[in-house]
Amino acid sequence: MDINLENFKRVHFIGIGGISMSGLAHILLKNGHIVTGSDIKNSHIIDRLRQEGAVITIPHEESSVIGADLVIYTAAIHEDNPEFKKAKELNIPIIDRATLLGIIMKKYKYGIAVAGSHGKTTTTSLISVILDGMGFDPTVLVGGEVDIIGGNVRVGSSEYFVTEACEYTDSFLKFYPYIAVILNVDSDHLDYFKNIDNIKQSFRQFANLVPPDGFVVACKDDANTMYVVNGLNKNIVTYGIYQDSDWKAKNISFDDKGCAIFDVYYKEEYMGNFKLSIPGKHNVYNALAALAVSHLVGIDIKKASHYLTEFKGTHRRFEIKGIVDGITIVDDYAHHPAEIKATLEAAKNYPHKRIICIFQPHTYSRTKSLLNDFAGSFDNADKIIIADIYAAREKDTGIVSSKDLVELISQRGKDVLYLKDFDSIVEYLNKNAKAGDLVLTVGAGNIYEVGETFLKGHEKAVGI
């Protein structure tokens, strides 16, 4: 959509508290726009926007859009939303979040868009931290909060723009990447996509957005990703651990916290030994992707080593929330079977006696379509607790429940328990968690509240 943002003084965001929406609002505030917005509840993200000058109402009210020049909405907002309906009635221009992101991205010469079914937030953060540390002064929009850049957004003054590129509803097809990163391609968002072939087709369209002088950075170890880029008339840069690729990690080992130490080679040339401060083998892939992108923009990779080690992760990605009585509470955003497997694999290398995994499924459609895969993703946990499904943008039609997942996990011989509400889960932990236990709260909803409530209930809890 050919929209000049300078023609719109006041921009209103319906659902401004979302991680991406809030970042876009922040960018517009920095660029001199009047920003208003609404959401269903307050949060620290909304508090921060208010401090920066945004006027935000809770909850959604049709009067909030009156006087706006442009309205932005998220995928979670439906046409029956009172503000959406009022904007239509008043003929105020309305665009979705992804369209706005694309409009902003188009202004930058070097747009770096990180796509993939898993790992987008961490990889985007790694690229951002390296570029920032090396003086590239990028503008960054990331789907998580990163302490090093001060949150989920950073507004720079250079020609570099770094963002996550989500495939849901084909959002990333509205972007303008100079460098398109494809980490992996997996079955997900099957409430929108028909099947894996449909998903691969979408990712191929995304890769095709890269201009002739741009680059596609792709994981060679991921078969679906290589299917996507096969025969593509683009500059392809590959990375991996097992397959021969442009960027390769060798001699991988792990420290006592499960963080990887590895050698990096670029076209068989030794580039140095690298050390991560975030656990899990999957983060070696994320680091390789970040190094490949950094090299493409002219960064001396050996000098970037320090920034990889310095990066301690984003919030909600194997985030150590605290320790009490020898019990470690970790929170992770994993909400897909492949992500759960990777998180529990990382947990295996972290000091523990038992791994207690508390999972909150995210959306009914995903739970239903990937039910068998979910059941097989908890094999590295010693105890599994399943909470009720987090509805997010969906309504409960009775097609699936957490009890269905519990039954399938139980059939695999695993120790699994269904606990409906958070209070019951906290009570269970108070009675059963022991010194040496690693307690993981896992899911894209609000399951992190379980760990926080448990820690608050113990005076001796130590925050990390």
TrEMBL record:
Pathway: Cell wall biogenesis; peptidoglycan biosynthesis. Its EC number is 6.3.2.8. GO terms for cellular component: cytoplasm. Signal peptide: none annotated. ATP binds at residues 116-122. It is found in: Cytoplasm. Residues 11-108 form the Mur ligase N-terminal catalytic domain. GO terms for molecular function: ATP binding; UDP-N-acetylmuramate-L-alanine ligase activity. GO terms for biological process: cell division; cell wall organization; peptidoglycan biosynthetic process; regulation of cell shape. Residues 114-293 form the Mur ligase central domain. It catalyses: UDP-N-acetyl-alpha-D-muramate + L-alanine + ATP = UDP-N-acetyl-alpha-D-muramoyl-L-alanine + ADP + phosphate + H(+). It holds the Pfam family Mur_ligase. Keywords: ATP-binding, Cell cycle, Cell division, Cell shape, Cell wall biogenesis/degradation, Cytoplasm, Ligase, Nucleotide-binding, Peptidoglycan synthesis. It is an enzyme of class 6 (ligase). Residues 316-445 form the Mur ligase C-terminal domain. Cell wall formation. Belongs to the MurCDEF family. HAMAP family: MurC. This is UDP-N-acetylmuramate--L-alanine ligase. It comes from Thermoanaerobacter kivui (Acetogenium kivui).
